[in-house]
Amino acid sequence: MSSQVAMAGGSSGPVPPARKRKSVMGTRPWVAGLFLLPALVLLGALVVYPIGYSVWRSLFDADGSSFVGMENYGDIFTDDATFTAVKNTAIWVAVAPALVTGLGLIFAVLMERVRWSTAFKMVIFMPMAISMLAAGIIFRLVYEADPDQGVANAVVVGVHDTFAESSVYPNARPSPESDLKASGGGAFTTTDTVRAGVPALLPLVGIAPNKLPGDPVDAQPAESAGDEVSGTVWLDFRLGGGGEKGAIDAREKGLSGIKVEAVKDGEVVASAKAADDGTFRLPTEADGAQLRLPASNFAAPYNGVDWLGPSLVTPAIIGAYAWMWAGFAMVLIAAGLAGVDRNLLEAARVDGANEWQVFRRVTVPLLAPVLVVVLITLMINVMKIFDLIFIIAPQPTQDEANVLALQLYNAAFTGSGDLGLGSAIGIVLLLLVLPVMIVNIRRLRRERRR
């Protein structure tokens, strides 16, 4: 009995039996494992197995019959189309997340000072409710080259025509019976000089009478103007035909607004614009000069910017992406901004800082953790961009807008169907995403320790 007491360390009661250890949450490990099993099975079936199979498949040729080792990975950087995809993906990662984060920051800060800010936030966030497919179709129409259909070019052409003189009669040319001859640069000049008191005839063709701008009136012969030079510029053609070439016939229309210049020794000494009936008058200085119709009368109309051309297709699609995701960045940054201590902002203002200094030196540093979250999220997102490029970029310029996700699709599921190369591109894309994910996980762990 005494030995039992000694073994018990002098305690008066019996030693209680040892209990089975539980996890920190008070749950036995096998119970936690049982609940995690379905998720682990799905994770293995949908993530681990596809990654492992892609690695294995990337080491074989197109039909999987021959082992080629790292040859498919070498093709990624030697094939022009795939190398362009790598370059464009790098442009997307460098530009799009920074642009969207910057827009979101600006919107979030400005919305705090705007009445009805909730309504504005809803409008900016609304594109997030649209699928990538629908957004692609929308911006394919926005970037349409025809200004009558594409909103972007309609705006550009409207602004251009406000500040620049537009051509009056594009594609018009002199009548074969005319004394006007091409003089370079798209202009036409008479071979003979003109004299005061002898009206000049400047017939043009190449325009359909029913396509003349405005409300054209019938052309009239110019009257003798004493010591001034006069003449008529008209369309030497009428619907139904007939009439004498080089002469002003009934129902032939005057070319209103066309510019006429008098040139002596290569210098313009006078100029005038034709009236509604095509007649014009030049001062005495024009006597003995040649008449020139400058190229500005005949230049093709400005039709805007080739948004989806080889040089602008990638920036144009990045613009569409920014339109969709700026609302996402704004909402997250606005949530972080709501937690900023306003006393710090007021203290900076009291110390004499202006609004730009408060924004740059106080607001942005305090929002740095939120900005990093938004930036990393968008970087991961743009590496997988596919829908917008596939829908917006027209077939002739899709190669110039190509990215890795689209090249994976093109290599594996179109044309020759090279699953080996497609799998290699998928693995490269995974390796590019992994560093960003690791940085994000480490950041989350650091914040959890605080």
From TrEMBL:
User: By its UniProt entry, which InterPro entries does this protein fall under?
Assistant: MetI-like (IPR000515), MetI-like_sf (IPR035906), UgpAE/MalFG_permease (IPR050809)
Residues of the ABC transmembrane type-1 domain:
86-440
Q: Gene3D superfamilies this protein is in? A: MetI-like (1.10.3720.10)
Q: Which Pfam family, any one of them, does this sequence belong to?
A: BPD_transp_1
Tell me the domain of life: Bacteria
Q: Where in the cell is it found?
A: Cell membrane
**Region annotation Disordered: where it falls in the sequence:** 1-20
Key words, A-Z: Cell membrane, Membrane, Transmembrane, Transmembrane helix, Transport
Q: Membrane topology per the record?
A: Multi-pass membrane protein
Positions of transmembrane segments: 29-51, 90-110, 122-143, 320-340, 366-393, 419-441
> Where is the signal peptide, in residue numbers?
none
Q: Which family does it belong to?
A: Belongs to the binding-protein-dependent transport system permease family.
- State the protein's name: Sugar ABC transporter permease
